[in-house]
């Protein structure tokens, strides 16, 4: 048996060391990592994936820890992938402390892993998707993807989740306004954490107004989907009524004390039921697969072109010719891609 097959078998057998090694290979883009992920894909599709994002200082880590603990008390296993798009290093001090704490407790059924932007942000997004697949194939019941910051970077990363929770600290008018820049559209649940602080009521009110504005927008929709999903009356957050319209609930929590955590879990469960009832879970999965295929085609296509350029002596000679007006960028692109295009056409089925 090859090392590759052995590693897959150990992961599928529930060995956390094998899971950690696979995720390391995914993050490092080690040779053969694609084959590993390909092998795992057939074993996925069972875990509930929850994305948690929001403003720095909103208490995401504390809430995620409390949620993971509550799931474990229910007998469910948990994987947490903490993402830091800003950090070029893996496992910053804070995340490192959390991982050590989790290990010291000895409960490996809550598996923490931090990932960071060693390469491109797009690469991190792909690596996150692959890490989630590894945790899913391993058999984790719940997978939480937690981002360190809040912004457009995180939007792409948390799109790997079935349900996205956006955390907002109280009395944060600026933060609520900032949410308009992309995070607002992907929220399935809003959480006003640290709800015991002044300004929580005002923040809830502002969020509620923004949610109503979002649902009235022709661009509104779950995870950026079309407005047709929002036609008709909104379903109450806690309800389990029919139809596909859904207004994201706003939950108040004090993660430090655990207040509101149960209500947050109920909101996540309600959304999960809604996904199943409306068929939206399958629709979402298809959109994710389509996006993943397009991303990989772009990456692989770019690598193919780079290799062809290198084989022709690099870009500089072409730049010199364009600068001397001997050719132009369009002709260069056509010339470099001509053999690739010919191969693709020759291989295309009739």
Describe the protein.
With 350 residues, the chain is α/β, with parallel strands linked by helices. It has two domains: 45-278, P-loop containing nucleotide triphosphate hydrolases (Rossmann fold, 3-Layer(aba) Sandwich), CATH 3.40.50; 295-347, no CATH class. It has 14 helices and seven strands. It has helices spanning 3-12, 16-28, 33-41, 60-73, 93-105, 121-138, 152-158, 173-178, 183-186, 200-216, 261-278, 280-311, 316-323, 329-347, and strands spanning 48-54, 78-84, 110-116, 142-147, 163-168, 189-192, 250-252. It is globular and about 70 Å long. The model is unreliable at 90-97, 99-105 and 224-243 (pLDDT under 50).
Throw out a few tags for this protein:
2 domains; alpha/beta; globular; Rossmann fold; 14 helices; single chain; 54% helix; 7-stranded parallel sheet; 350 residues
Mean pLDDT reading? 81
Which CATH C-level class of the largest domain is it?
Alpha Beta
- Could you give the order of strands across the largest sheet? 3-2-4-1-5-6-7
What number of structural domains do the residues give? 2
Helix content: 40-55%
The H-and-E topology, N to C, reads as HHHEHEHEHEHEHHEHEHHHH
CATH architecture of the largest domain: 3-Layer(aba) Sandwich
């Amino acid at each position: 048996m090859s090392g590759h097959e052995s590693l897959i078998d150990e992961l599928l057998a529930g060995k956390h060391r094998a899971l950690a090694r696979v995720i390391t290979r995914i993050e490092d883009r080690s040779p053969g990592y694609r084959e590993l992920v390909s092998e795992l894909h057939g074993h996925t599709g069972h875990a509930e994936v929850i994305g948690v994002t929001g403003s720095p200082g909103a208490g995401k880590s504390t809430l995620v820890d409390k949620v993971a603990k509550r799931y474990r008390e229910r007998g469910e296993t948990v994987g947490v992938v903490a993402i830091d798009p800003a950090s070029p290093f893996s496992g910053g001090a804070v995340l490192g402390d959390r991982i050590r704490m989790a290990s010291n407790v000895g409960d490996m059924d809550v598996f923490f892993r931090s990932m960071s932007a060693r390469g491109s942000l797009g690469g991190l997004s792909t690596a996150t998707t692959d890490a989630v697949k590894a945790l899913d194939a391993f058999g984790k019941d719940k997978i939480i993807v937690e981002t360190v910051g809040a912004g457009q970077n995180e939007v792409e990363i948390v799109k790997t989740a079935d349900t996205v929770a956006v955390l907002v600290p109280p009395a944060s008018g600026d933060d609520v306004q900032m949410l308009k820049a992309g995070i607002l559209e992907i929220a399935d649940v809003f959480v006003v954490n640290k709800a015991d602080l002044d300004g929580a009521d005002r923040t809830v009110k502002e969020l509620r107004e923004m949610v109503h504005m979002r649902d009235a927008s022709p661009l509104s929709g779950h995870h950026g989907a079309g407005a047709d999903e929002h036609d008709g009356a909104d379903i109450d957050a806690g309800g389990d009524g029919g139809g596909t319209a859904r207004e994201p609930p706003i939950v108040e929590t004090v993660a430090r004390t655990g207040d509101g955590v149960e209500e947050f879990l109920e909101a996540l469960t309600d959304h999960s039921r809604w996904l199943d009832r409306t068929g939206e879970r399958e629709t979402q999965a298809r959109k994710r697969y389509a996006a993943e295929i397009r991303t990989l085609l772009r990456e692989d296509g770019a690598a193919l072109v780079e290799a062809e350029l290198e084989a022709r002596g690099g870009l500089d000679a072409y730049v010199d010719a364009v600068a001397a007006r001997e050719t132009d960028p369009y002709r260069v692109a056509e010339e470099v891609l001509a053999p690739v295009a010919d191969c693709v056409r020759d291989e295309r089925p009739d």
